[in-house]
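Issue: copy button drops trailing tokens. Both records pasted manually instead:
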Amino acid sequence: TYFDELKRYPLTVTLPDSSTTAISDLTIMGRSYLTAAQLKEWISTETPRIKANMEAQGRRFQPIPELADLYIKIGAEYGVRGDIAFCQSAKETGYWQYMGQVQPWQNNYCGLSATGTPMDGTEDLRGADPGKVSFWAGFHGAVFTTPAAGVEAHIQHLYAYTSKNPLPSSQTLLDPRFVLVNRGSAPTWVELNSRWAVPGRSYGQSIILDYWAKAVKSL
């Protein structure tokens, strides 16, 4: 089953400069390939399709939040590729339509702490700043006070997977699952397979090829 899923995806991806790289070599750490403006343009071209899809399902379209600048800026502060993290958020939230259990107002853009069981409100924040993140009884996943806090928690979770270094000294812990990660276990996006999501056997390939590569092609 694992190999059948992987065979759906090519082994390489085309970068914005028209060169190619092996998907397995695309690291989480590094400079963003795309700018915030380019991400915004990509999402603007996707919006009519997303709206039509929601209408076809009889669901209300959720306005897509302005997150591109935050992902690029905060990603750079941690040395994480914010453009691909933005695309991971698109995958996790269904293009920010939230078809699962997490609600749009939670500012939770990657399903942090959403495990399928609603919270009771007393969960341990594990050192995360209680002024910016909390758990609400009856809801799924973490609740962040602002979009910036939600984006930074997402970036911190990626940082935990890709690096064994402590957080930058100027940053406050916002990710309540940071200490649960096997630090440095996933330097590349495809190494998030079966780690970030379960079973998630082609999770990293999907982020790159189903989302980020489409953003690149839209340039």
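Record 2 (pasted manually too):
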Amino acid sequence: EIWVGTDDGQVSMTTDHGKTWKNITANIKGLPKGAWIPQIVLSQNDPKEAWVVANHYRQNDWKPYLFHTTDGGKKWENVVEKANMTGHCLSVAQDAIQPELVFCGTEHGLYVSMDRGKTWEKWKHNYPSVPTQDLKIHPDHGDLIIGTFGRAIYVLDDISPLRDWINNGKQIKDSLSIY
């Protein structure tokens, strides 16, 4: 299975090693026409779950767009539309160990969700409000590796406490002391 996004707002996928492609752009309600698709992240836990990062700042639209599907791309939701998030979206990472844990990088910093994108909080603990271009979770060490536009690399060392809070059933609001 391969998914691709383009710099003119198209999202397509193939499930037969590229022999045939299906354009699913029309399924993504709320995706601005011509938006840039800088990242698509597929869930490592659910073959029907995916995240599409879109931004439209080149058309002076600074709203965040992060779309999520759990049915293989038939229906989508902009999971940051109602979030108190600033800056257009640039990157996303979903934890393979605890898939409820999702990170989103924007033009103005890093955001975290502990409920698979239903709610978001800005990560303020020793991290500046900078363009957060790329996010990867190290598969062996559980570190969040962050690449910024300013050519800096940050490492959020060991995200297992965040995983533990989710496993223990606590809500993100109960955990604000970490921000």
